[in-house]
Amino acid sequence: MLRQSAKFIQQCWEDMLFLFFPEVCAACERSLVSHEQILCTTCKFKLPRTGFHNWDDNFMMKHFWGRVDLKAAYSFLYFSKETKVQRLLHLLKYKGRPEIGNYIGDLYGSELKNDGAVDHIDFIIPVPLHPTKEEARGYNQALKFAEGISEATGIPVRHDFLVRGTISETQAKKSRFERWRNVKDKFFSKNENKWRGKNILLVDDVMTTGSTLEACCRGLLDKCEVNITVATIAVAIH
Question: pTM for this structure?
Answer without folding.
Answer: 0.83
